[in-house]
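[Discussion] Sanity-checking designs against the backbone

I'm trying to build intuition for which residues belong where. Below is a structure token string of 194 positions. I'd appreciate it if someone posts a full sequence so I can compare it with mine line by line.
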């Protein structure tokens, strides 16, 4: 009986401490404040374990399919570049203000499991600024985005710009326009995303 009473009093004391923490305003929710110490560990570990536990049953399609990569580029360039960057574009006004910062996919996409990229893109992550694109995009379109993201680390700024042109695709990277033909203007990433 004494043990149950001790456990009950301990739980009540912890609940009271949590309520004091919540209502005191002590914790600064400003995006200007970086997390550190125990709070950073709690948030990152919770996020990592949550994602990891939900990857079972996801089947990865062939991510080398050029039509998927080209379609994925269109979506990435429209929805993702302002936070996650592109070759030659590491920071934008949006990405600088995010906390936690969005990963610069040009550098880290190779190390991320395609299943994890798919799950995060589809479901988003609460309180990070990462939206759940599965609410507006089919699984097929999300896999297209993943296929493109996995190619980002090997892409140059020039290749990315070329894909931005109206006729640009990953397939035509090897073609060189005739110098006498009129050139279409290729907008830079910076022009699209202020």
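Best answer:
Here's mine. Compare freely.
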């Amino acid at each position: 009986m004494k043990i149950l009473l001790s456990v009950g009093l301990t739980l009540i004391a912890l609940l009271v401490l949590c309520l004091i923490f919540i209502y005191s305003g002590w914790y600064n929710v400003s995006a200007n404040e970086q997390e550190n110490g125990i709070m950073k560990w709690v948030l990152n570990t919770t996020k990592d374990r949550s994602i990891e536990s939900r990857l079972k049953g996801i089947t990865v399609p062939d991510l080398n399919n050029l039509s998927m990569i080209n379609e994925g580029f269109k979506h990435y360039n429209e929805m993702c570049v302002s936070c996650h960057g592109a070759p030659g574009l590491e920071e934008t006004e949006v990405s600088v203000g995010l906390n936690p910062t969005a990963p610069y996919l040009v550098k880290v996409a190779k190390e991320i499991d395609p299943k994890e990229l798919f799950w995060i893109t589809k479901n988003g992550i609460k309180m990070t600024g990462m939206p759940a694109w599965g609410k507006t995009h089919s699984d097929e379109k999300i896999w297209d985005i993943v296929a493109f993201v996995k190619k980002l680390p090997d892409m140059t700024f020039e290749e990315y710009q070329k894909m931005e042109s109206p006729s640009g695709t990953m397939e035509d990277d090897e073609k060189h326009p005739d110098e006498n033909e009129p050139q279409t203007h290729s907008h830079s990433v910076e022009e699209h995303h202020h």
